[in-house]
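Re: the 274-residue chain
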Amino acid sequence: MATLQPAERVKALEERLGTTFPRPELGLTALTHKSWINEHRGEGFQDNERLEFLGDAVLNLAVGHRLMERFPQMKEGELTPLRARIVNEEGLSRIARRLGLGELLQLGRGEELSGGREKNSLLANALEAVFAAVYLGSGLEPVMGLVDRHFAEALEGVAQALSRQDYKTKLQEAAQDRLKLTPRYQIVSEVGPDHEKIFEVEVMLGAEVYARATGRSKKDAEQTAAHGALVLLDRGEKPGQVAAAPPGTANPGVPGAAEQAPVAVPGPKDDTPA
């Protein structure tokens, strides 16, 4: 892609985004890194830094709007960290890679040789610039369409993470209300290499183990265990009264209950901060 002409780069970007640039020069500017400008001074081109500045605000507006629609009961203090989980360097660079944005960039030789097309910061900045170019050329509506198309997975991931988070919060509220106890979590075992470790966690209310569960992170295992304990509390039962866990939940019961019923299968990795 390094030999593409400027107009060809913009055309390829339009095809990958699924939109057009009424002002193609903005699309080209979004793809132009300052290192390229340093080697082509006097040729009338601009780098993408100003567009990057605007694009950060545009993306925060568009993603924030979708989050407000999806979670109408949430307050500002709850919505802000959710948006930050999506509009950040790692998340934006992931979307940029999916679009193949790196190969369309105009980079200087030094940046090219240092692997600039794969740098998270450079890719995230370029994606912000692209969204600013769309906004300046066509307004907010096409931007919202691009967010729906290219940020759908990130938005859904936030929703799924929230559903898992709820179990620990709900268990704490239920346990304090009904038993005047605070749940305690402890790791039972850790198996596997560091990059694929599986955690087994148990949750205790008082001196009793209410549930055990496994997960690909401590957080994920705790959420699943909390779900299993919550099932018992909602039924008004104590550990040992149930022989089998509901499908897809932790294994509720007394110590040893793991032998009575299958422990929950590890779910998707949950990167939500503890």
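Strands lie at 184-191, 198-205, 208-215, 251-252.
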